[in-house]
Amino acid sequence: MTKIVSVNRWGNGLGIRLPKEFIDKVGITETSRVEVSESDGRLIIMRSKETRKHIPLAERLKDWNGVPAEPEDIDWGGPAGAEEW
Predict the structure, then answer these.
(1) What is the rounded CA–CA span in Å between residue 58 and residue 51?
(2) Which label site among 16, 19, 49, 84 has the fewest CB atoms less than 10 Å from its CB?
(3) Helix, coil or strand: residue 1
(4) Higher pLDDT, residue 84 or 36
């Protein structure tokens, strides 16, 4: 099966929409991961066997003490234009 699809800008990259017939046949969903490779000028997209482990928010925040981290002081150098210091 072959289909022609459009390539569109997505942020700084490019994206394509996968036709429903393909995603149903391959068995991918909105949260699936895919492997993208190139061979002899062909773009190859395959369903990845790697899965992203879901980590609940409570577990992600378990070591957070509720106090935001202090930003580090960054020396951006002296004025470069008409800035006032």
Answers:
(1) 21
(2) 84
(3) coil
(4) 36
Band the pLDDT of 39: cuts 50, 70, 90: very high
Q: How many Å apart are CA 54 and CA 34, to the nearest integer?
A: 17
Spatial separation of the C-alpha atoms in residues 68 and 61, rounded to whole Å: 12
**46 touches 35 (CB < 8 A):** yes
How far is Cα 32 from Cα 49, in angstroms, rounded to an integer? 9
- Tell me what the mean pLDDT of segment 8-29 comes to: 92
Residue 52 has pLDDT above 80, yes or no: no
Please provide the DSSP assignment of 17-83 as one string.
PPPHHHHHHHT--TT--EEEEEETTEEEEEE-S--PPP--HHHHTTT--S-PPPPPP----S-SSS-
Given a contact cutoff of 8 angstroms between Cβ atoms, the answer to whether 85 and 79 are in contact is yes
Which of 29, 31, 22 has the alpha carbon at shortest distance from 4? 22
